[in-house]
Design brief:
11 helices, Rossmann fold, about 350 residues, 7-stranded mixed β-sheet, 3-stranded antiparallel β-sheet, alpha/beta
């Protein structure tokens, strides 16, 4: 049984749109457009380019999706709509996408107490992790959300080419996801939590959606990493305040430092305390994560780092402060909190638009 989707306006249940649907309408009168069967429930702007530009790009991609392959469609996106990126940056980005995710935590999700329940990829982008989960035969139906319709159309093309037509996609923000409480046995987020301005709200929503016994795993770059900032390829870019980081990138001709909100382990632990304050049954742990690159892209230095992380407590402590990757792991204990929920299933006192912990 697939999860229900709910109207953001009144929380009534909605039917999943068909592939040829262009609009779905709720009993309350609210209507939502659809592209390629993907409903658009966004209530805020894409932090990278805004929804108006995203809509224009999505329309172009939809027009060409039936004529060319996924790789060609991805190339069209970068060459036609990402003029701020140089050829080397485009090659790097495409290689990263085509090679797939480094570590979508498939094994951990398969061991979850809620294994067999639906799985959500939060910020699914072009669908790399969705395909990895499907190929790994993780039990449970798979769903993906993203705030960027352009990326969801790319994911739809990629999934269809892989024969995964049954994977459902939704366009919405992570701060307000249109699903009932306790829907997913596992939630995965790779390279996404650093792109939302209100990460606390996303983590609170994640806690709400987890089934008892379920887990959520997020991988995110460490703001104070000693390695180059992965989004722009420059050392120490993440250490700088936003305006200085943007100026630094412009000065050196790097990709724009835009829609990037990395944090340190201390910063993510503060966000985790917001979650535990609203959902006491959810345990959050922030730790250094292995680099975990695929075999083709794996270097001796990466292997050394991952080995040291596994074997040395002192190195783990160092890596948690200055290593390249952090992992946020959330687990919803089987015993439920006695705190009553709010009128829409959210924790008391949390309203859409709030910025918890700020």
């Amino acid at each position: 049984m697939k999860p229900r989707i709910r109207c953001p306006a009144c929380r009534a249940d909605l039917d999943w749109p068909q592939r040829d649907s262009i609009r779905i309408v709720c009993v309350c009168g609210a209507g939502y457009r659809c592209l390629s069967g993907i409903p658009d429930f966004r209530g805020m702007d894409d932090p990278y380019c805004g929804n108006a530009r995203d809509d224009a790009i999505a329309a172009d991609l939809q027009e060409h999706a039936g004529k060319i392959s996924f790789e060609e469609l991805l190339g069209r996106y970068y060459q036609r709509h990402c003029l701020e990126l140089g050829p080397a940056d485009v090659r790097r980005q495409m290689r990263h996408i085509l090679e797939g995710p480094r570590s979508p935590s498939v094994a951990a999700i398969g061991r979850s107490e809620a294994a067999g329940s639906p799985i959500l990829d939060l910020g699914c982008g072009s669908g790399s992790a969705l395909i990895t989960f499907a190929k790994s035969e993780v039990p449970g139906k798979i769903f993906g959300i993203d705030i960027a319709m352009r990326w969801l159309l790319l994911a739809r093309k990629r999934l269809d080419e892989a024969g995964l037509n049954e994977v459902r996609l939704v366009c919405c923000e992570g701060e307000s996801m249109p699903f009932p409480d306790d829907t997913f046995g596992a939630i995965h987020g790779g390279d996404v939590i650093e792109h939302v301005a209100d990460a606390e709200a996303v983590l609170v929503e994640t806690a709400r959606l987890l089934k008892p016994g379920g887990i959520a795993m997020f991988r995110t770059p460490n703001r104070f990493s000693l390695t180059p900032e992965p989004h722009v390829g420059l050392p120490f870019a993440g250490w700088l305040p936003g305006k200085m980081a943007r100026a630094y990138c412009r000065l050196l001709g790097a990709p724009p430092f835009q829609g990037i909100f990395t944090r340190s382990r201390t910063g993510w632990n503060r966000a985790a305390r917001v979650v535990s304050g609203r959902y006491p049954e959810v345990v959050c742990d922030v730790s250094a994560a292995s680099v975990g690159a695929g075999e083709q892209g794996r270097s001796r230095l990466m292997s050394f780092y991952d080995t040291a992380l596994e074997r040395s407590g002192a190195f783990r402590a160092f890596a948690a402060t200055f290593g390249p990757v952090l992992q946020i792991r959330m687990e919803k204990r089987l015993e439920r909190s006695v705190t009553p929920a709010g009128p829409f299933g959210e924790a008391p006192g949390f309203q859409q638009g709030d910025r918890p912990g700020q």
